[in-house]
Description:
2 copies of one chain form a homodimer. The relative contact order of chain A is 0.12. The first copy, chain A, has 2 domains: about 170 residues, Flavodoxin domain (Rossmann fold, 3-Layer(aba) Sandwich), CATH 3.40.50.360; about 55 residues. In chain A, strands 1, 2, 3, 4, 5 and 6 form a 6-stranded parallel β-sheet that branches. By secondary structure, the first copy, chain A, is α/β, with parallel strands linked by helices. Chain A has 9 helices and 6 strands; from the N terminus they run E-H-E-H-H-E-H-E-H-H-E-E-H-H-H.
Amino acid sequence: MKTLVIISHPDIINSSSQQFLMHACPVEDDVTIHHLEGTYPDGKIDIAKEHALLRQHDRIIFQFPFYWYSSPAMLKQWQDDVLTDGFAMGKNGDVLNGKEFGLIFVVGIREQEYQAGGREQFSISELMRPFQAMAHKTGMIYMKPLPIYQFGYMTDEEKLDLIIQYHQMLKAEKNLTLLAKEKWVLDQLRKTDKNTLQPKDVHIVDHAIERIEENRETMDELKIVLDEMY
Amino acid sequence: MKTLVIISHPDIINSSSQQFLMHACPVEDDVTIHHLEGTYPDGKIDIAKEHALLRQHDRIIFQFPFYWYSSPAMLKQWQDDVLTDGFAMGKNGDVLNGKEFGLIFVVGIREQEYQAGGREQFSISELMRPFQAMAHKTGMIYMKPLPIYQFGYMTDEEKLDLIIQYHQMLKAEKNLTLLAKEKWVLDQLRKTDKNTLQPKDVHIVDHAIERIEENRETMDELKIVLDEMY
């Protein structure tokens, strides 16, 4: 599966959250990072190039700061210019059909304000309807979004957790079951280059793999018992 | 009451619906028409000028074609540039507080597709949440929007009706009661310059005024009877 991350941010160099995500991004052949304002400083979008990029990838991600309950203007321009009739919709416009579509966005306000009675009144799901409608119109599968609330106040532990969520959004199969999440974590642990680790950290990695495998065996046994009961 | 109509359309000359609205627009001192792409062809918005315009008006209207369930990118750029902290929100950012905010937008798809189970899945109210949230954040009063569905298929009669709705959106007090609507229509009829009309049309105008006044009298009498009954 190949993933295209379309980033829109007018000042990405000075954005600590975007810089963090850039460094957290898996450096692999099957992930393409594409910053719109950097690629098109004059605002003129190369539509043929964008169409080619979309064709080459299976999962399309929009990554941006949440400005006035939506994306920056450049990403809206991209939608208006690139998602043309005959390509993304309308007659023969089925290029995006069946691809996955995800949203990653950085929000300055606390999560609990986004509900009826909260300071922002509406939920993130409601505010994202225009993007959900776009996914629906183009036949893309709408993934569970990854909103990042108040990045500046995150603890180191929360940031580590964010890296995992970010990797999963970009690379793991969508709507992970517990079993798939386990498998994903095991894969990541096994891929770790132990030569880059301190001896005590090698031990931690080995221990984590063992514990996950043991837990899984216990759960499999429980499942057999339950199946026999019914 | 002074009304500012902020229009965003990248090709307004070739838009039959926008041209229609331009000609339908009341030519009066207290309505300002402001086309963003025409004013700023290089896309660079004069923030001080926009702030002055907003201060001078009591009702702010966004008028645009519905592109990907939102406005064209230029209007998003306007939001991001102009609605600054300290002006439209945040500490001392109360300039828009108490003003009225309205949306007029032209939609290519039939109205009934905008509901659960329809081709577009979501209602117009849901898709407009980001604008409603903006009005909420800036303290503006969200008016009932005026979506214009499938302008190209409208009959002449529907277009005449649209002109009335358009004038009311720009000039009449919001959420008109029947009484206020009557008064508004009577005012418009009385303002008509009879020298510009054919004799038979003068008669029609006089007759319409008479009928509306008669209806109102009948309704007032009914109200007295009802009040006495309870």
